[in-house]
Amino acid sequence: MGKETKKILGFIAFGVALYAVLMNFGAVIGALKDLWGLIIPVIAGLIIAFVINVPMKAFEKLYAKIFNRRGKSERNFYGISLLSTFVCIILVFYLMFTLLIPELISSLTSVYAAAEVKVPQWIDYLSSREWNIDIVTDWFKDFDFKSLLGGAIGGMGTVMDSIVGITTSTVSGVVTAAFGIIIAIYVLLSKDDLSRQSKKVLYGYLKKPVADKICRIANMVNDTYTKFFSGQCVEAAILGFLIFISLTIFKMPYAGLIGVMTAILSFIPYIGAFLSCFIGALLVLLLYPDKVILFIIVYQVAQFIENQFIYPHVVGNSVGLSALWTLVAVLVGGNFFGLLGMIFFIPLTAVLYSLVSGNVNDKLDKKGLTVKS
Questions:
Q1: What is the pLDDT of residues 136-147, one digit of tens each?
Q2: Mean pLDDT computed over 165-169
Q3: How far apart are CA 153 and CA 156, in angstroms?
Q4: Around Cβ 131, how many Cβ atoms within 10 Å?
């Protein structure tokens, strides 16, 4: 059978299949939904495995160094590394719900109490200076801080109740989560075998240059995301703890709240540092106006020490992305997907930048051109 005949038969088969799909569109959509419901646990398991693999690899290297025996590789410690990772995750959630959240609620309550007393005093002070603050006065009179705080605290409880209710009352959700965790465990315990099998399929069905390129891109994505998230998590914890200790030493209010806020916002480059300092200054201004300048100095000094002496060793140029492209990634990711988009788009942009720059350099080399600045 010639190539032209195969092409004609292929077009005919495609036309028949397309006609069958259009004539039974509702049934096809229903089948796709059923198929999606079947593969959701697999997708969830792969995502969980990808995230958990980051701390698990750290435990693998740690145990390989501690039990440095001849013939022992990191693969021999997959089981204990996975168990250690789950223990750390459970411990983090336990500490969060028993220590962190009650402390944050207490801080927010004190913020409301301070606002209720201090804001009217500030309004009176500005009025005595003949400042026109009618708009601020009207807004504050109509604004109910107590309802806002109660709604925020109640909202957190409502969200948690909704999450618990969904996971406990919806059987499909429980099954999906359980199967996702089980699949993640199997994937992590047999990741070397799965990697080898995936490569065999790629090289078996695709040409070697194409398979090589896919493997190279996959390794680049894995390395970039691993370096970024591991570095950022450690850096966020160190920065939040450093800010908390610094503010506590200088007896600043809301040290715990500002430390937690700094750790969370540190995942957003450039913008996060400014926001955490600005919001912290407002909170201090609310209670102790005479300490605002000291707060800004202490905060900036602590952040400077972290940026100059800790950040380069913990994170460094983990994604190999310039400040301009990092800012572009934050803006684009935040515009489309909010906070998570800001975080995930940085390593994604680093991967795309590396691929594009490599392709451009290859084309220039083939043309024998050298571009100078």
A1: 555 555 555 555
A2: 47
A3: 5
A4: 11
* Of 7 and 186, the one with more pLDDT: 186
Model confidence at 213: pLDDT above 70: yes
Structure tokens at 114: 């301070």
Alpha-carbon distances of 18 from 4, 7, 373, rounded to whole Å: 21, 16, 52
How far apart CA 337 and CA 331 sit, in angstroms, is 10
Write out pLDDT tens, residues 96-154.
Answer: 677 666 766 776 777 677 667 666 766 676 667 666 555 555 555 555 555 555 554 45
**DSSP per residue over 238-284, as a string?**
HHHHHHHHHHHHTT-TTHHHHHHHHHHHTTSTTHHHHHHHHHHHHHH
- Distance, in Å, from the CA atom of 135 to the CA atom of 148, rounded to the nearest integer, reads 20
What is the pLDDT at residue 245? 92
Q: Evaluate whether 255 touches 247 at the Cβ level (below 8 Å).
A: yes
Long-range contacts: 81-90, Cβ < 8 Å, 24+?
Answer: 81/56, 81/57, 82/52, 82/56, 82/185, 82/188, 82/189, 84/59, 85/52, 85/55, 85/56, 85/59, 86/52, 88/55, 89/52
Q: Which of 253, 246, 295, 277 is nearest to 118 (CA)?
A: 253
By the 8 A CB rule, do 272 and 265 touch?
A: yes
In sequence order, the 6+-apart residues with CB closer than 8 A to the CB of 140 are: 119, 120, 123
User: What does the chain come to in residues?
Assistant: 373
pLDDT at residue number 170: 53
CB 211 within 8 A of CB 203: yes
Does residue 58 sit in helix, strand or coil?
helix
Q: What is the DSSP string of 141-177?
A: HH--HHHHHHHHHHHHHHHHHHHHHHHHH-HHHHHHH
